[in-house]
Amino acid sequence: MSAVRVKQAAVMLLGLVVAGLMVFLGLWQASTFRTQGQEATQERAKIAAVALPAGAGDQIGALYGRQVTVTGEYLPEYQYYIGEKPPLRVVTAFRTTTGQVVPVVRGEVAEGETATPVPSGVQTQTGLLMPSEKDLTSTPTVGLPTPVMVQVKLESLAQQWPTPLLNGFVTLNEADARDQQLTPATVVLPDGSGSQRNAGYALQWWIFAAFALVMCAVRARQFGKNAAKEAARKARGLE
Q1: Which of 28, 127, 129, 191 could form a disulfide with 172 if both were Cys (CB 3.0 to 4.6 A apart)?
Q2: Which of helix, strand or coil describes residue 228?
Q3: pLDDT by residue (tens digit) across 201-231?
Q4: Is 73 a member of any domain?
Q5: Please, are residues 200 and 33 in contact by the beta-carbon 8 Å criterion?
Q6: Considering only CA atoms, which of 212, 168, 177 is closest in space to residue 22?
Q7: From CA 107, how far away is CA 178, in angstroms rounded?
Q8: Of 179, 209, 230, which one is at a domain's C-terminal end?
Q9: pLDDT exceeds cutoff 90 at 34
Q10: Considering the entire predicted model, what is its pTM?
């Protein structure tokens, strides 16, 4: 191998090592970004419950992922089982003292079970407020209790339940679910925003890695050009 080839190989090897290190640092930053987001979401869910404001309207989004309390009465005639197969969540309409209708996931039932009756009279319930779940194209298993839907889809409930329907639903905490002789339902928390600074750092490292590879390739190519010019100069000198 010529000296030029050796230099080119060395430069490209150096570029690969540097780029690999930068890619690793970017992945580390991205992992930190995700971890911070998850931790922020979990911490948000642990914050002390706040009363659901009357006429929350467009401001309801600011409370997603937080514990809220609602006071009012259940409307047992408006109830769905949620899921493709057991265990199934049980969501029941709940009219607050301010007139809003809130879908409340009271808990879940195992295969062969049906929901227990709702408590009568005015109740104060506490749970995690979440937005409408994503629509799925799958269908529930045959033989489930009815009525049933795959997910808590507020757009569908709004067509059948009383209004005004809150643009969000509440999943009861463990204590309130067990008070109704139901198994507490599991809540899948959304990804948090994490640290935007870490997300930016991750992107920067990957840009730096690409830049390092490009610059090393340019440098290696320049070695080849310089060697060719030198060879041409020597050839002219021999003529």
Answers
A1: 127
A2: helix
A3: 667 777 877 877 788 788 777 776 776 776 6
A4: yes
A5: no
A6: 212
A7: 8
A8: 179
A9: no
A10: 0.64
Q: Is the pLDDT of residue 143 over 70?
A: yes
Contact 129, 194 (CB under 8 A): no
H-run or E-run covering 112: none
Inside any domain, residue 169: yes
Is 115 domain-assigned? Answer: yes
Domain that residue 31 falls in: 3-39+194-238
- 170 and 208 share a domain? no
- The amino acid sitting at 204 is Q
- 173 and 218 belong to one structural domain: no
pLDDT confidence bin for 44, thresholds 50/70/90 = low
The span from the CA of 102 to the CA of 51, in Å, is 13
* Residue 74, domain member (yes or no): yes
Q: Which helix (H) or strand (E) holds 46?
A: helix 3-46
Q: What is the CA radius of gyration of the chain?
A: 30
Q: Report the alpha-carbon distance of residue 80 to residue 159 in Å, rounded.
A: 14
Q: How confident is the model at residue 101 (pLDDT cuts 50, 70, 90)?
A: very high
Question: pLDDT by residue (tens digit) across 144-153?
Answer: 888 999 999 9
Q: How far is CA 156 from CA 63, 135, 165, 191, 229, in A?
A: 22, 10, 11, 25, 74
